[in-house]
Amino acid sequence: MQNKFTDALQAYADYLKADYNSRSYSKNLNRQLVVEFDVGNKFIKVIVGHSTNGVVDSHRSSHSFIVINEYQGKKNLFKHGDILKSASWRAPAKNFSRGNILEKNYGTIAWCGA
């Protein structure tokens, strides 16, 4: 089960990188998208940044959050693997799920945000 989740996280990162690379400005600037994961108790924070010619820029931002275990919010029940929009650097927006990494349902998520 853990390996399936790890593979789904990698597929999500690959999806974000492919979306970034499909934009024309990424080719003009010789930049690549860098995707990192920060594991917390309830969520995995997806952090994005850029590298230019192999040098990683210092600017990073919180892209989205992935639900680790089933989580009951105030209004919604979130499933394992649900993608939540980032409300701030530290917290997800818990209004509704934007997709699910295990189902490879990324909805309208782009490299620049969920």
Description:
With 114 residues, this protein is an alpha+beta fold. It has helices at residues 2-21, 24-29; strands at 31-39, 43-52, 55-67, 71-72, 77-78, 82-85, 99-100. It has a 5-stranded antiparallel beta sheet. A two-stranded antiparallel ribbon has the order 4-5. The longest helix is centred in the N-terminal third of the chain and has 20 residues, at 2-21. The radius of gyration is 14 Å and the shape is elongated. The two termini are 25 Å apart. The mean pLDDT is 88.
* Biggest sheet descriptor: 5 strands, antiparallel
When the domains are counted, the total is 1
| CA-based shape | elongated
**End-to-end Cα distance:** 25 Å
Strand order of the largest sheet: 1-2-3-6-7
Number of helices: 2
Number of strands: 7
Structural class: alpha+beta
* Residues in β-strands, percent: 35-45%
Average of pLDDT = 88
> Helix and strand string, N-terminal first?
HHEEEEEEE
Radius of gyration: 14 Å
